[in-house]
Design a protein that fits this description.
Two copies of one chain form a homodimer. Chain A has 507 residues and is α/β, with parallel strands linked by helices. Chain A is built from 16 helices and eleven strands. Chains A, B: GO terms for molecular function: aromatic-L-amino-acid decarboxylase activity; pyridoxal phosphate binding.
């Protein structure tokens, strides 16, 4: 394919994406395909000779589109959001278009240098302590990794490196493998699956300590676990605190946990994968008080900050431990600029690096600080609105509400809520997933798409109500009538909005 | 940014990329910026309010472009190639445009299913043993990972899982941490830095055994290392064999190493990161004879198969060991389709997954098997042509030549070749890097860009010659005259070709 054909193909793809987003609200959020559907639509072998790009794009529409779950539908409320914005998409495109690999400074200086500056911008946007930033005097710094899973694991390796070195310096007779066999890590049982996985990957038992009723890991629970383990000859090494847990978006208290970790010389890693983006708004920063006690901090702009996956921001107070854990030098990678620009390959698992800083730059430039704050606040407001709707119906109870996530259930036996979840997801008009809060089965309702508006929340709530009605018929006539009125109001709003779009299109 | 603005911005970006590639041959391959250049061009804080996309694109041109190393310049001969093709760029764009995250089958069925089929296509393209493929009856299968570094590390973890389980079944009194502390891995000292890093990441000492003069790990060396380690109470667990080493593209002999690993119950991983793409051509498949002895196999379509970074293909004979090493289940990830479609998150480090199969599909469809074979053969031919050129000048010696990589040096002391490398890279017309072959300092000349033609190899050789002339002036007048003629011929060719491009553009 020559550059002329690329111009045509690329522009057709741009239109395809734009068309997709203009019609996404009308699509059922979940696909109707059955496992194995795609294998039946494709030949068993690659084609011998090439096909035209027009054929390829038609196949995308015929084969791929029916098998997509529409994460950016305003009626997608599962998991947590994954970010999407047009500036980030163009950033990805240019990054692929340049197609360099930033395996060292000289391999493309702009790759390393834009990342250095972007991680400073981002750190300032969140008001992180200065010592985490690349622009600080000390050994701290920030880097873009691929995912929170990677980061939690990398933090664990750095913690291990630090602890083993420290103990061997104190007692040179100790065997490295003996120390490693005794290290232990901690997080709450509300932490993401990736935290447990980090323990598996790094051969360090990850103790998942019981959170309290609010989903938080308390100081007393952590202290007790540390005491027990030390009594049993184990060596506490790594704590992962969560700011915004996956089940309910609960926040561990860093001012409680931090001093314990510092005193016990345990590496404290902060996983703020989803909720970290909220710290762009000053009113939420109280939730990260005590962050200065931590050794590493992570949040995912690719979740809630409009930067497409993957873009996971990691800062460390002292990059030395990463570099020492990972540094393997080779002649073909000779590094001529030590100290002037970080060699990020020593901070991560892989050697190669994509130009992820570009999409982050595009988003920060085109949205600006205010645009990002507006996005966060709007989504929190929508979640609050949903919470209100649920709270008005006595058949339901709101279990938790934090940031853009509400968990709720039908009062009574768990099986009622399970039924509701199944009925709703089977209909594919909205997508929600299960959760557990304080031992109870709940439905998680996350505001995910940047396209979500009040009318979409209304739509989703009506959908939930209509299915709940079949499980727990409304006895309170007044409630039902109210809900009918809301329903009509929301349909009118939707139609009006649709008409507006239609008119704008026909301009 | 709304979808209309995205149409404009996206199409402008497509044109920007196309323009870049149409002018890439004329650009100095290495940038002239100094470390820290970019920090001076950007504000210290993110902008408060948003900027227009036109401003952003101008800034790309002003700030980013001068700091790129042009990996796809036909005069880039450093490292190994990183792949680039227009179909893959559009694949990346659409993947970002859809913006789903394939963290489970239901999270976007097309993501998992296209990957399953593409890994079958790719395995058939390389003629891998059936048992590695997803479409086989057994427990084998293929997955796209991010990099060979990740794959080598994941292979190591699976090997560890398998070995620990096997030993604990034999002897339930053994302690897991005691076994883990005794495991040891092997590769040759010619293996990529990522292999050593995998050992660091996985807390398993990676013994880098001396390769022979041809850069291969021999059976006797491996056997001796295993014997020694077993005598010292260690447990051999993992061998990484290289098909196409980084320094010289040497090939370990799997028919030699494989039976040893099988007999000793050591996991054999094959790292064919660069050269694996060549097995698309039947004439090179003799180099992977014995692959059936291996437990896992990896090559990077993102190196030599026209699929943009990242796309690292991994197959395992038995996926059970991956799943057992990584599986952490959660209620919000409830898996309803076990057995019908693999849950790839249990095969990898991260939870989230991009739609990398899409760009692979685009490349295989638009190039076809023949297009890929043509690309590989053309690049090997160009390397052979370069080898010929070097061989004609008595001041030089060709040290190795394999696939698209030639290593060479100035006869005599290493310092001559070192000088040559420095002079050439300082001029920035071409980019080559240092290597070491059989103990000697060499220059690695890799054919990297898909745009590279014979005239570019001529250009690069003239550039090397012109600088060599200043270090070792030619005594052989005839040689110099010949080389002058070649030089003129190549300049004429270049001008003619440029004229042709100009004419085509003005049509």
């Amino acid at each position: 394919m020559d550059s002329q054909e690329f111009r045509e193909f690329g522009k057709a793809a741009v239109d395809y994406i734009a068309d997709y987003f203009e019609t996404i609200r009308e699509r059922p959020v979940l696909p109707s395909v059955k496992p194995g559907y795609l294998g039946d639509l494709l030949p068993k072998e690659p084609p011998q000779t090439g096909e035209s790009w027009q054929d390829v794009l038609q196949d995308v529409d015929r084969i791929i589109m029916p098998g997509l779950t529409h994460w950016h539908s305003p009626r997608f409320h599962a998991y947590y959001p994954t970010a999407h914005s047009f500036p980030a998409v163009v950033g990805e495109m240019l990054s692929a278009g340049f197609g360099c690999v930033g395996l060292s400074w000289i391999a493309s200086p702009a790759y390393t240098e834009l990342e250095v500056v972007m991680m400073n911008w981002l750190g300032k946007l969140l008001d992180l302590p200065e010592e985490f930033l690349n622009c600080s005097e000390g050994p701290g710094g920030g880097i873009i990794q691929g995912s929170a899973s990677e980061v939690t694991f990398i933090g664990l390796l750095a913690a291990k490196e630090k602890k083993v070195k420290a103990l061997m310096e104190l007692n040179p007779d100790l065997k490295e493998s003996d120390i490693k066999g005794k290290l232990v890590a901690y997080a709450s049982d509300q932490s993401n699956s990736s935290v447990e996985k980090a323990g598996l990957l790094g051969s360090m038992p990850m103790r998942l300590l019981p959170a309290n009723a609010e989903g938080k890991l308390t100081a007393s629970t952590l202290l007790e676990a540390i005491r027990q383990d030390k009594n049993n000859g184990l060596i506490p090494c790594y704590v992962v605190a969560c700011l915004g847990t996956t089940p309910t978006c609960a926040f561990d208290d860093l001012e409680e946990l931090g001093p314990i970790c510092n005193k016990e010389e345990i590496w404290l890693h902060v996983d703020a994968a989803y909720a970290g983006s909220a710290f762009a708004c000053p009113e939420y920063r109280y939730l990260m008080k005590g962050v200065e006690f931590s050794d590493s901090f992570n949040f995912n702009p690719h979740k809630w900050m409009l930067v497409n996956f993957d873009c996971s921001a990691m800062w460390v107070k002292n990059a030395k431990y990463l570099v020492e854990a990972f540094n393997v030098q080779r002649i073909y990678l000779k590094d001529q600029h030590k100290g002037l620009a970080p060699e990020y390959r020593h901070w991560q698992i892989s050697l190669g690096r994509r130009f992820r800083a570009l999409k982050l730059w595009f988003v920060l430039k085109i949205y600006g600080v205010e645009g990002i704050q507006k996005h966060i606040r709007h989504q929190v407001d929508l979640a609050k609105y949903f919470e209100e709707l649920v709270g008005r119906d006595k058949r339901f109870e709101v279990c938790t509400s934090s940031m853009g996530l509400v968990t709720f259930r039908l009062r009574g036996n768990d099986s009622l809520t399970q039924q509701l979840l199944e009925k709703v997801d089977d209909r594919k008009h909205i997508f929600v997933v299960a959760g557990r809060s304080d031992g109870k089965f709940v439905i998680r309702f996350a505001v995910c798409s940047r396209l979500t508006e009040k009318r979409d929340v209304d739509f989703s709530w009506e959908e939930l109500l209509s299915q709940a009605e079949e499980i727990v018929p409304s006895k309170n006539k007044i409630n039902t009538e109210l809900s009918d009125k809301r329903s009509i109001a929301s349909i009118e709003l939707t139609d009006a909005a649709r008409e507006k779009i239609r008119m704008e299109k026909s301009k």
